[in-house]
Amino acid sequence: MALLQWTKILTIIDGRTKTMKQAQIRLITLCSVLCCGVMSTVVAQQCKGIPQFMIAHGFDPARSAMSSQENRKRGVVLIELSNMANPGSTRNKSYQHPSWLLPGYAGSITTGRNGDIYVLPKANVNMLYNPPENQNTIYRIDSKTGILTSWVKIPMPRIPDEHNASGLLSAFYDCDTDALIVSTVAGSRQKEEIGAIYSVKASTGETKRILDKTDVLGLLTANLNNERRLLYGSARRSEIWSVALDASNHVTGAPRLEILLEGLGPRGDDKARKLRMDTNGMLQVFGVPFYYNLTAPVERQETVYVFEYNPVKKVWTLKSMN
Amino acid sequence: MIPVSKKIFFLIAGAMVMITHSACQRELGRQVEISETIRHRKMDIQRALQQNIPVIRLYTDPSKPEYKAQEIALGDPRWQEMYKDPRTGKAMLNEVFSVSHSRPADFPLHQAECNQSGCYRVEVYNYAKNGLIISIVDINSIKIISSSFYESMQGDIPPHLAELAIAIAAQDSAVLREYGGTMNASSSRMSSTKTALNHSRCQRSMHLCVAPTFVKGDKALWTIVDLTELKVAGTKWTDVGRTGMPLTERIYQNEKIMKCYCEVENHVERDGWSFSYSLTRSDGLKIGQVKFNGQPLFNSVKLMDWHVSYSKTEGFGYSDAIGCPEYSNAAVVAIEAPEFKALVKNRDTIGFELVQQYFSEGWPTPCSYNYAQHYEFYRDGSFRPVVASLGRGCGSDGTYRPVTRISFAGTSHTIEQFKNNTWEQWQKEAWYLQSEADQYQDGRYIFKLKYQDGRTWMIEANKGQFGDGGRGDHAYFYVTRLRSDREEGEVDLPTLGPCCNIDYRQGPEKFIEPEALDHHALVLWYVPQIQNDNRSGKEYCWSESVLEDGVYKPRVWPCSSGLKFSPSSTAEQRQ
Questions:
Q1: Among all residues of chain A, which has the CA nearest to that of B365?
Q2: CATH of domain A46-276+286-299
Q3: A168-192: pLDDT as tens digits
Q4: Under CATH, what is the fold of the domain B265-574?
Q5: Are the CB atoms for B137 and B124 separated by under 8 Å?
Q6: What residues in A contact B330, CB-CB < 8 Å?
Q7: Architecture of B59-151 per CATH?
Q8: Which of A110, B285, B412, B499 has the most other CB atoms within 10 Å of its CB?
């Protein structure tokens, strides 16, 4: 967002903080024009490979992406955008291999170091194309062949049912460990939070549980103050937590509350659907309403909150929302 | 008027989920005595809407610099689109929320030349669009420095709106009942209590909402006040000082529906009828153990799916489940409590109905949906499960096919169809499509159901004769055996079938083998076919947003469908 626009929106945020809880006020400070610089105490991972099949099909990797949100399309679609900075821009062309329909409707898509693409299923409006028993299956598109196959099945304590249609919700490729880190809420119910986070070794598919009894909507790993941490957004609360990980993705400390989203944005009840670190070390939080149902509003209700980490005070500061 | 926030004491009362039992009580008899404050507010609104620039101004004294700033900002020709609806020319309601000296952060670098002493920031809220215009103006050079509109932003409300919100809350009967005592809004801001005003969000209605909070002992009663509609949108007790999610419209609505209708089964006895009801996770509002004058009629009745297909695009449509707003498979969710209403005909009360509505976020914008269930219970023992679409959907070429499942009480039934001027018994599971060529006994009855004990219930087809605006159902009837050895819909079922089959394949056919029906308990599945229409004067299954009193409100043209059951004795009396 242009600085000009930031300034205007941020002054509004300042007015709002008067009415927020103290915990939030601690986290949310006005970003003046002078302090909108970057403090690089957060190290983002950049190791995404280029899928070879994109090139083979004549797509420009710099302008192309895999999408699970194309209108009236199931599965995933390879699209080439007219403007890469604008996901809504005109598609110059698109392609869908027949195997890419296998997951049914799809959600999170992540690319690994070698260009393999990982696809998670996600029911859309109903379960007709997303059988409950497949909602914890990670699908992989081979970088070379471009063919999608069922890759790893994450354990399910209970098959998704009328109380909760979801299984896997988010995936993040961790460059440090060459592992896919995924969250699942399969089997969780209103009064029974039994979701979990797993790491899956990309080379072998070996699966290891990182956290349990935690429903997570979005996650990533990052180095905060030289400490490797897993950041994760609760699927139940407007909160982002973190936990320290060692080099083998074992938890080495207690979970820590990092950011409250309560009361922020136009809705005030957003959950962190996706977390991403930009190249300047700013945390992007894609906030959406999430209530364990199959509603699919026509107008996407999403706000991107950008937070900066203050290594001295060890707090996150909201820099913008859009 | 004195600007903004300094006079308002903001107290932060944390929230803890604790809906009291009384929160589940129906809100019948809710009364709001319209105070002078509210009456004046309505007059202010009407006055503003009559003006060329339909804005409730904050400053009226022309000698004040804030007045000048306000008028410069309101004169911005770019904001004509905020004043009048481009389609109808009707006025949209706006209100100046604040005029204050601009802040350094208001100025991008290239505009820093604005003389600070003459520079003002003017915030104007548009109630129709739920957004905020922020203008920076220079009253010395009579110039607009910058001006932008921000969707879904509301800004800090002025003091008179804070007072109005408190007045609305303090006079609402449900709030008073919850609070357990009288609150006098005019008595020095409730000196006997501690009152705070918190921000809230009305995410679904997209209205301007705040949350006056009344502290009583160690508890705080949060009250969401909708300042667009001048009403209370919800209340909730919290523990003072505890942190937690701020109360918003969606959180309040979801918690109430989940606690009062999804997690519990409610029971009713009225006009000879008794039954239970609850919201399901994917099959709508379900009624169960339905009896009339003590005699069991139905095990359960529920609405399994809504299939919507659009004829202009093959295979395009949706298969929507309806039900609880959280922890469900519902695509269109209940956000308001079920309601009991009197059934009145020719000024006589002839029974009652239980009504439940379901909403998509954003309804009635295009491609959003609103569905309704009406269970009609008549004093003469008749029963009609009505389902309706209230639009709006993705186009004017839509056909709705809702799937209702009716499970009859008892262990043995027979079902007969009126054909060739006589009643013919169905021997096997089958389906049937209502058509123009059908025969009806007494012009009404297409089927009759006999219970084991000899009771007979006549089934009246919908040909548009029920006086509810329905135009006839052209329905599919499916009769299957109630199976105890396998699950065929007694518990919540996931989506039964795809959106866009245009024949009998709507889902229930999966349960037709066909097996013999005789001496078994039966299930009737009913799937009307209703085509929507958006032509002026002929609207059906349709809705529009229309401007009323400066804000957009839904206008609906429901399409009601549903057959009717009547005890044979009642049916005979009608002859």
A1: A298
A2: 2.120.10
A3: 999 999 999 999 999 999 999 999 9
A4: Beta-galactosidase; Chain A, domain 5 (2.70.98)
A5: no
A6: 293-295
A7: Roll (3.10)
A8: B285
